[in-house]
Amino acid sequence: MVEKVPMTSGGYAALENELKQRQSVDRPRIIEHIAEARSHGDLSENAEYHAAKEEQSHNEGRIAELEDKLARADVIDVTKLSGETIKFGATVTLIDEDTEKKTVWQIVGEVEADAKKGKISITSPLARALIGKKMGTTVEVMAPGGAKSYEIAKVEWR
């Protein structure tokens, strides 16, 4: 049984763009580097050749990984979701009960999670604590520094 990979339409598009970049730009550039390095003669001691081959291996591995994730993607259009209950795709505004600091997180698939962009994986401890909860509820999450409590201030679908 093939395990589906949940992701937003934005996450799917980002993976598609990376795949196109790697296939149509990076792959030909690397092949060119290999050909150029090969022309320098003895391959056994040709560091440039070995570096280009290693780069090719890395690129081809990532292409295979991207193709696999895209093939197994379960794309969820977040804009068509609604409701007060937090689930995949929700954008949640939290208030730290200790510091009163507001943070906004969107719950996304593992492949598109990026804390710097405010996107957390559905498998993260925070997302798992939020799933199924509603606005106004308080959740407690085990963090590296101990338990943290957050009030759910807002649930949006965007």
Short description:
The chain is α/β, with parallel strands linked by helices and 158 residues long. 39% of the residues lie in helices and 26% in strands. It folds into 2 domains: 72 residues, Transcription elongation factor, GreA/GreB, N-terminal domain (Helix Hairpins, Orthogonal Bundle), CATH 1.10.287; 79 residues, Transcription elongation factor, GreA/GreB, C-terminal domain (Chitinase A, domain 3, Roll), CATH 3.10.50.30.
Largest sheet: 5 strands, mixed
Q: Give the percentage of residues in beta strands.
A: 25-35%
Per CATH, the class of the largest domain reads: Alpha Beta
Oligomer: single chain
- Counting structural domains, the number is 2
> Share of helix among residues?
25-40%
Comma- or semicolon-separated keywords:
single chain; alpha/beta; Helix Hairpins; 2 domains; five-stranded mixed β-sheet; two-stranded parallel sheet; 26% strand
Q: Care to describe what's here?
A:
The model has no long low-confidence stretch (mean pLDDT 93). With 158 residues, the protein is an alpha/beta fold. Helix 1 runs antiparallel to helix 2 (47-71). It folds into 2 domains: 5-76, Helix Hairpins; 78-156, Chitinase A, domain 3. A 5-stranded mixed β-sheet has the order 5-4-3-7-6. A hairpin with a 2-residue loop joins strand 6 and strand 7. The chain has helices at 9-38, 47-71, 125-130, and strands at 5-8, 73-76, 91-96, 102-108, 119-121, 138-143, 146-156. The chain contains 3 helices and 7 strands.
